[in-house]
Amino acid sequence: MKQILHQTEVNLRRIHALGVQKVAIPLLQPLGCIPLIAKDSSYQKCNDIINALVIIHNNELKNVVANLNKETKQSTFMVIDYYNAFLTVFKNKGEKPGSQRFETPYKACCGGLCGSVDKNGQKNYTLCDDSTSSFFWDGLHPTQEGWKSVYSVLNLTAFSI
């Protein structure tokens, strides 16, 4: 983790030296909630140990950004808090509190080897009936509706980047 954070800091310094005025750095999402991990709980909960490690990483990254901002004497760098945005969507099961759009937010719409077929052309995967009711498309990636909900929570239009 230290090597990744160090390289991120080096890269951010390079970007700043090129004259870029503002840089947004995303924090990690709660990786303990992705379907590849949540399947161990039958998609009912996140893995708290993995999420604790993500929190440590995100806190260290926030420290790197804060130190860089002190050095540049301006808020050149900002973080985008994917971690809490994802958790808010999971808790609310959608972009609006009380929404039931994502009934099982940790379960993927595409199960199996998404997009692959066997030697006879038979699909090696299954799809949910309605991808708009799934937060995740596959074991890692949110659906378009999932990202729409995250960005609604983040309200990035409030930032002048």
From TrEMBL:
Superkingdom of origin: Eukaryota
Keyword Transferase: no
Keywords noted in UniProt: Hydrolase, Lipid degradation, Lipid metabolism
Gene3D superfamilies: SGNH hydrolase
Family: Belongs to the 'GDSL' lipolytic enzyme family.
PANTHER family listed in its UniProt record: GDSL ESTERASE_LIPASE, OSJNBB0059K02.9 PROTEIN
Protein name: GDSL esterase/lipase At5g03610-like isoform X1
Gene behind this protein: LOC104708768
